[in-house]
Amino acid sequence: MIIRIDELSDVPIYQQIRNQIVMGISSGELEPEEQLPTVRALAMEMGINTMTVSKAYQLLKTEGYIMTDRKNGARVRSMIEKQGRMSSANRSELKRIVSEASLSGVPKEELLRLIDEFYGG
After folding, report:
1. Where are the domains of the chain?
2. What would the pLDDT profile of 39-93 be if each residue is shown by its tens digit?
3. Which CATH class is domain 13-76?
4. Which of 2, 21, 76, 105 has a 20 to 30 Å separation from 27 between CA atoms?
């Protein structure tokens, strides 16, 4: 999986890394138990500080998407807990996206089609 960072984005780099790894897990591009690059290797590849990558990995670990240990490094969790609900932050982000789509004149049917596509349906 290739992680691309948008230097001009208002989204912090660690959050961009986190978001792309979550999308990779959801899409199946990253498989359960798959080894992720080491913090140092990913930081060097991207030309960023190791603390930035470490922060992204810590967030992913806290959220239950990856597991880490000194011997095996970071891996995608084989079983990700399904809570059956969205976080308030994700609900707010979805509300913003839907609002922007509505103001842009995107038909509701098109938005629902995109949700089906991204959800894997």
Report:
1. 13-76, 88-119
2. 999 999 999 999 999 999 999 999 999 999 888 899 999 988 888 888 888 899 9
3. mainly alpha
4. 105
